Amino acid sequence: MSTRLPLHLAVRRIASANPDAIALVHDTERVSYRTLAEAGDNYARLLSSWGVQQGDIVALMLPRSAQLVAVQLGVLACGAAYTGIDPRWPVSRVSSILDQLDAPVVVGRTPGDIEGRPVRVIAPESVVSAAADPAPYNSPEVSLDDAATVFFTSGTTGVSKGVVTTHRAVTRMFGTAGLDGFGPGHVTPQAAPLPWDMYAFELWGQLSTGGTSVIVGEDHLMPRRLRALIADEGVDTLWLTTSLFNLFVDEDVECFAGLKQLYVGGEKQSPAHVGRYLERFADVPIWNGYGPAENCMLTTLHRMGPADLSVPGGIPLGRIVPGTDVVVVRDDGSPAPAKETGEILVTGDGLALGYVNDPVLTGTKFIEIEVDGGTRRAYRTGDMGLFDSEGVLHYRDRIDRQIKLNGNRLELGDIESAARRVEAVRNCAAVAVRDDNGQVQHIALYYSTDADHAGLTPRELRKQLATMLPAYAIPTAMERLDALPISANGKVDLRALGERGRR
């Protein structure tokens, strides 16, 4: 598919060219592209009758299902954008998101209202039933630069932020000269949370190019389920957060057998876990994926290999994906030369339009920069990194994870990197424990080990860290956990660990 189109039009094009190809699999339901496109048009007519207009944002409180995807297509066909809300969330969180959206239409399964907002009810049905009596829906003209979806990310502040993302941002990495593993004959599980940008990676990466998306009903994909999906559905392309990848390697590294490519990211990679994967699957590409939701899905990729396991500072972030560029800048905003650390700024087709109904935050994070004699719009990631002499991007740490303790400036990422070099440590996270005024009191390190090293005590770990870190950087508190807590997005829950440290 060489010519990019808005998402719903891309699906229609495939439905016209290859109508019987399987677009979606959900339990026993197998949905062709023709059926999916026809159901999307029928839902578009229904949504239009409820008042959905071009430029609206529609809140979908539907469970993960083939029907949800068809309704999303219906929203897009109306010229509107959708946002996914987990119907199991507390009413207070749902209300706070709807307050940001000022959503004119809320679609769910349960009649009633949410603090005065009526819920339009769509009963559960198969997509085949939803596609009955098809008739073409005359969509308004939609461009690649129009809003397609709003992702909600809490980032480092804990406050949900609605990231308004365009059709172009979603489609830029896929198709001709795009990422490996997407298109006809390729199959990806859709297991990422509904409000997260990697939901789009798993779903629209295949549906915009003619591949198949297998919808996973569980909260998290687990090793046994992956084995079954590879065997039964032909899954060959997979995305996992770093924390889940580490878990899969620890529990059942053989579960990856049969994959053709694996994308892993969202957190700093563990060389030990990557090394164990490479020992077993040396010929199956495993890619380190990096990127904030504000630059939809991915910004850089790096195929990981044995040489990366001993790179100082950690496994590289890699090179930019299609439709994207990266600039590393100094504190004064000037470009940093190779090997000099600065803030990572992202430009290109993946950039969000901004934060929904928040022009102040949008103006703070999305800025204009001078590059090569011209002006570009860029997103300030808050991540620190550098380019090496070969143009490969390396991650250092978050700006907001740089702390001062007793007059010393510390990088929490450096502490984690040192701990990961201890053979027994399987996973770890360093957090700054703060008092009620936000002042850093001390550093806490939480770690887990494999079964053979379950006896690694905090005292023994402290001794080993003392050989790698200055005294002021050694965490005051250390605690071994069976497993580090995981957030809804499949990443280590640093906020929960911070609260644990204050107890």
UniProtKB/TrEMBL annotation:
InterPro entries: AA_adenyl_dom, AMP-bd_C, AMP-bd_C_sf, AMP-binding_CS, AMP-dep_synth/lig_dom, ANL_N_sf. It comes from the Bacteria. Pfam families: AMP-binding, AMP-binding_C. Residues 415-491 form the AMP-binding enzyme C-terminal domain. Residues 13-355 form the AMP-dependent synthetase/ligase domain. Gene3D superfamilies: 3.30.300.30, N-terminal domain of ligase-like. Transmembrane segments: none annotated. This is Amino acid adenylation domain-containing protein. It comes from Streptomyces antimicrobicus.
